[in-house]
Write a structure and sequence with these properties.
287 residues
Length: 287
């Protein structure tokens, strides 16, 4: 779950994987073709938001899908503008007069929180002017290399758009606003999940993404914070439902979108392929 949360401060609930090899690795990521009853088309592509090195993600099928599309749809369109996203985070995160972070977790979690704080270089009182959700996302990035986000496939897809329009499904302000709108007890559940999963290593996730193993990826969407029904409803199911409506409108308009979002959003009965299929679209996994 930590790998899922570690990119939240920049891109919401996403499937985040760190590649393990120092050289680029080929991949066969998950891709779907979508067709409406009237023959309008779209493609769904499960991405990876962060990696140690660039990934060779453009298989022949993915390249063809990109070439056949008329617009690119992504979660956040200005991923390269790190200063703007950081400013949005800082603005939403600010909330003075908060208690020490140790008072926002259960007593039994305080030793683990103290260990995580030491690893991150923070102190218990450092988050007195920050919402609990923002503190949780900050700690979730402990140990992450900021440069890894620049190897994310989302950025590469945007760069490959050429002259085609890049359409945001949400944007950073809306994504982070979802966290900011959570009730305090849910924000504390988020913090608790980050602390609980801090030492968990997900080295196999990179291999699962490269193989397009959606069964394994779907299992990950039911761990940690997404196992909490209220958090899941807001941060996963609700977002997928909103995106499905926007994607369906783009398809009906004949815009032939190539939709590139975190692979977790494609997973299971609450993923984008399943939601579009229930609306009458023919959704086919491209092998």
């Amino acid at each position: 779950m930590r790998r899922i949360v570690s990119r939240l401060a920049l891109a919401g609930v996403a499937f985040v994987i760190h590649a393990c090899s120092p050289s680029p690795e080929a991949a066969r990521p998950a891709l779907w073709h979508v067709e409406s009853p009237r023959g309008e088309m779209a493609w769904l592509f499960g991405t990876i938001h962060s990696a140690k090195t660039p990934l060779l993600w453009q298989t022949g099928k993915v390249r063809q899908a990109l070439d056949d599309s008329n617009e690119i749809m992504v979660e956040v369109g200005n991923l390269a503008d790190e200063s703007d996203i950081a400013a949005t985070f800082a603005r939403l995160a600010q909330n003075r007069g908060q208690p020490p972070l140790s008072q926002r977790v259960a007593a039994e979690q305080r030793p683990a929180l103290a260990t995580l704080l030491r690893k991150s270089g923070h102190f218990d009182g450092d988050f007195a002017a920050m919402d609990t959700w923002a503190a949780a996302l900050t700690l979730a990035q402990t140990g992450a290399d900021k440069d890894q986000a620049r190897n994310g496939v989302d950025r590469a897809v945007i760069a490959a758009a050429g002259k085609r329009p890049v359409v945001e499904l949400e944007g950073a302000a809306k994504q982070l606003g979802l966290f900011d709108s959570l009730a305090e007890h849910e924000q504390r559940d988020l913090l608790s999940a980050v602390v609980a999963e801090a030492d968990r290593l997900d080295a196999d996730l990179a291999a699962r993404w490269r193989k397009g193993d959606m069964v394994a990826i779907e299992r990950e969407t039911r761990r940690g914070l997404l196992a909490d029904p209220e958090l899941r409803a807001v941060l996963f199911v609700g977002r997928n439902r909103d995106w499905t409506a926007r994607i369906a409108q783009a398809i009906k308009s004949g815009r032939r979108p190539f939709v590139a979002v975190g692979a977790a959003h494609m997973a299971g009965p609450e993923g984008l392929p399943a939601m579009l299929a229930r609306q009458g679209y023919t959704v086919t996994r491209v092998q």
